[in-house]
Design brief:
Layout (H helix, E strand, L loop, with lengths): L4 H7 L10 H11 L7 E8 L11 E5 L10 E4 L4 H8 L3 E3 L1 H8 L7 E4 L4 H4 L3 H4 L17 H10 L1 E5 L5 E8 L4 H17 L10 E8 L5 E3 L10
Helix pairs in contact: 2-8, 3-7
Amino acid sequence: MKHSKRFNGVSKKVDAEKVYTIEEAVVKVKELATAKFTESVDIAVHLGVDPKKADQAIRGTVALPHGTGKQVRVLVLARPPRDEEARAAGAEHAGLAEYVAKIQAGWADIDVIIATPDVMGEVGKLGKVLGPRGLMPNPKSGTVTADVAKAVKEVKAGKIEFRVDKAGIVHASVGKAAFEPKQLVENIHAFLTTIVRLKPATAKGTYVKGIALSSTMGPGVPIDKAQIAAMGH
């Protein structure tokens, strides 16, 4: 894989022999975010779990105290009057039949879909389209709910959903490089504390194998795993 001169230049500023504290990693990632746009700050956590086992397929949600810095576009699939409640709470789109048809026709201009329980029969038809894109509403993540106004407000305020991939890694965006270091540190703490709390009883050996922080276009900065030992208790 070939990298740009800019990437190779900033990569040299990461000490390959060192593991950084969360605070040090945040400062380093901000320093390395030199792209011409405002980069996101992403975290990758390698877990000692077998994602093929249902009880080890880690997934959940976390409310980041300072949000992600991204504009989250929300669609609520609901019948009246719930669709009106959703719009009043800040959802960009709300309705049912017309949006089911739009999604089936390839429309993808949304980041989160929330649905009421009574329309899941209709939403189920979209599984093949929404599943692979990680947009399928799910009761576990709070995106299937009768209280659509509350769900919309939580998502807009910085509630994110995450799930472990086939390689046992959880990826998430924890803010923007333009955030203050303290805001990024607090978001990372909230995220890692949630990951630690979700440790399955059946997971053997080391649960958190590695953590790396990076900006969208920057190299990964390894975080010291010892820092998270006290989290989640």
